[in-house]
C-alpha cells in the first residue's frame, strides 16, 4: 500500500500548498493539487519534483508558461501521468495511475520546471 501524507512546511512570500492523495493500493491512482500564491502564476513555469527513498531529487512533470507549451511527464511516468494547470485558479494538478513501488518518494510542487527557476515548497506530500 502507498500512503500520501501532507507535511507541514515553510512560510514564504511564494506559497505552494499541496493537497490530495490518500492510501492507495498498487495499481491505484492518485491526484495531487497545488494551489499557489505570492506570484503571477500564469507567467511561471510550474512542475512537480519527487525524491525517492535514498535517491536525489528529480523532475516528475512540468508545464511551461509559454503559450502552446505542452505539459510533460518524466519517462518513468509517461502513460500513467497527467498534468493540468489552471492559470485563473493558480493551481497545478498531477494525476498518477497504475501506481508502482518505483513511484514511492516525496513529491514537491515547485515554481520552475525542467531545471528552470527555484523550487520552493510550503507543503509537500510523500509516498511512504
From TrEMBL:
Keyword Acyltransferase found: no
Q: Which InterPro entries does this chain map to?
A: Ig-like_dom, Ig-like_dom_sf, Ig-like_fold, Ig_V-set, IgHV
Residues annotated as domain Ig-like? 8-109
**Which ranges does the record mark as transmembrane?**
none
Entry keyword annotation includes Metal-binding: no
Q: Which GO terms describe its cellular component?
A: extracellular region; immunoglobulin complex
Keywords, A to Z, come to: Adaptive immunity, Immunity, Immunoglobulin
Gene Ontology BP terms:
adaptive immune response
Write down what this protein is called: HV307 protein
What gene codes for this chain?
Ighv37_2
Amino acid at each position: 500500500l502507498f500512503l500520501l501524507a501532507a507535511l507541514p512546511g515553510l512560510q514564504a512570500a511564494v506559497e505552494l500548498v499541496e493537497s490530495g492523495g490518500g492510501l492507495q493500493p498498487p495499481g491505484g491512482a492518485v491526484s495531487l493539487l497545488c494551489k499557489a500564491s505570492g506570484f503571477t502564476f500564469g507567467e511561471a513555469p510550474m512542475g512537480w519534483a519527487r525524491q525517492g527513498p535514498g535517491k536525489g531529487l528529480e523532475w516528475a512533470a512540468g508545464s511551461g508558461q509559454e503559450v502552446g507549451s505542452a505539459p510533460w511527464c518524466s519517462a518513468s511516468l509517461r502513460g500513467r501521468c497527467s498534468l493540468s494547470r489552471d492559470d485563473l485558479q493558480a493551481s497545478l494538478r498531477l494525476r498518477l495511475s497504475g501506481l508502482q513501488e518505483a513511484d514511492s518518494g516525496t513529491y514537491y510542487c515547485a515554481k520552475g520546471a525542467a531545471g528552470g527557476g527555484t523550487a520552493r515548497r510550503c507543503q509537500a506530500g510523500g509516498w511512504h
